[in-house]
Amino acid sequence: MSKISSMGLTTRIMIGMVLGILVGSIFQDILAGEDDYLIPLGLFSLPIKAFFVDGIFHIGGEIFISSLKMLVVPLVFVSLVCGTCSLSDPKKLGRLGGKSIGLYLLTTAIAITVAISLALLFSPGEGVPLPTNNVYDEKVAPSLASVIIAMFPTNPFEAMAKGNMLQVIVFALLFGVAMALSGKAGNRVATVFEDLNTVILKLVTLLMNIAPYGVFFLMAKLFTTIDIDLIAKLAQYFLVVVAALLIHAFINYSVLLKIFTGLSPVKFLTKMKHACLFGFSTSSSSATMPITLETATKKLGASNSVASFTIPLGATINMDGTAIMQGVATVFIAQVYGIDLSVTDYLTVILTATLASVGTAGVPGVGLIMLAMVLNQVGLPVEGISIIIGVDRLLDMTRTAVNITGDCMVTCVVAKSEGELDETVFNDPNAAKDLEDYHKSLD
User: Fold this and answer.
1) Residues 315-330: what's their mean pLDDT?
2) What is the pLDDT of residue 53?
3) Crossing angle for the helix pair 304-317 and 385-417, nearest 10 degrees?
4) Share of residues in the chain with pLDDT > 90 (%)
5) What is the tens place of the pLDDT at every residue in 130-176?
6) Average pLDDT, the chain
7) 36 versus 108: which is more confidently predicted?
8) Helix crossing, 211-225 with 265-282: angle to 10°?
9) From CA 115, how far away is CA 105, in angstroms rounded?
């Protein structure tokens, strides 16, 4: 036990992930298409699926995800209020917004361009049999106008209760600005919020202690239920998407970081491994947000006034991983149905997917809604989505890790441009080591 406790949190999470994958794969082998498998234990039998998969693994995984999501709204609201009320220059807020949104749209456009290029190069849809009687229940995407209107809450408490992050961000910004303009009264309230922020960040640190167990439960359930045969049938599509995601995460982000900041991409990516493991296991940028924010401020050196704005915004509108899936999926579906797309069609896909990343922000099932929009725009059958849904769960995990890497890269660029990046922290390989030591002390 002492050896396990002495390991870093990232190592323990990795161990939990690997063990979960092994256990899940073993259970899938045992079940092998059966509804359940009973383990004889003397006077009674223990059902694997009902007791472990739908019981222990499901409950443990859901508790872990819920505990992370529990922190998102209070963390974002309190942190963003603290950051906003401390801004000495009101114009800075507009600069932060313009730079952040511009960079997020740029990275999304680059992502989908890379994806389409790889898909055209490797033709993953050729040889895949045309599906019959496939039906996809298409959801109507909201218009950009309705999304902009919906950003402003009529009831901020309802927005917090429903987890509507765009509305929470807008209210936090307005509240922070009002505090900054309220003199002594604003200063007194700011002190309370600073204390709340400290307490919430400590709660994040405490909850990190259950992360290895939560990751184990999530992986065990996923790999018990995932359809390996389907992945084999769509192997080329699967591999092209993964290749595009890796190129974007390791090459595109590194080049952009070096161009805009001159910082070391190797140090940046090394410090992202902890957050990426969380993103991979949770498949949710929102659930991973507490860890992403901690990484951006404690490990990468971005000030809270910048990170508290760019990270929640990125978790809401930064869809690089989803854009990659859309690019490959569009080419894949066109090839399966034998439909030729022109250069104009591909340019339309790039533009539509880039703009849709903002227009569908915060909508449940955002990836598939965006893909349906893209397919409609270039005249491809929306039913083609049903072909790839089966393998999308595993790809979604990788997309999330890429998205949060993009969030932190943009945060570093914006913070550097505003003089709000502590390069000593960024270059320090032991930055936030006190957090790791604290995690160990809890075991």
Assistant:
1) 88
2) 86
3) 160
4) 33
5) 665 555 555 555 666 776 788 889 999 998 998 887 788 889 989 98
6) 84
7) 108
8) 60
9) 15
Give 70-105 pLDDT, tens digit per residue: 888 888 898 888 888 876 666 777 888 889 989 999
**Is pTM beyond 0.85 here?**
no
Whether residue 126 is predicted with pLDDT greater than 90 in this model: the reply is no
- Please check whether the domain covering 2-441 is classified as CATH 1.10.3860.10: yes
CA distances 266 to 250, 254, 255, 272, Å, are 9, 8, 11, 10
Q: Where are the domains of the chain?
A: 2-441
Do the beta carbons of residue 363 and residue 242 sit within 8 Å? no
Greater confidence (42 vs 309) lies with 309
Contacts of 69 (CB under 8 A, 6+ apart): 163, 284, 286, 287
Q: What is the pLDDT of residue 284?
A: 81
Across 391-411, b (16+ Cβ under 10 Å) vs e yields: bbebbbbbbbbbbbbbbbbbb
C-alpha 399/C-alpha 49 separation (Å) is 28
Residue position matching structure tokens 């914006």: 414
**Per-residue pLDDT reduced to its tens digit, 364-379:** 556 777 788 888 888 8
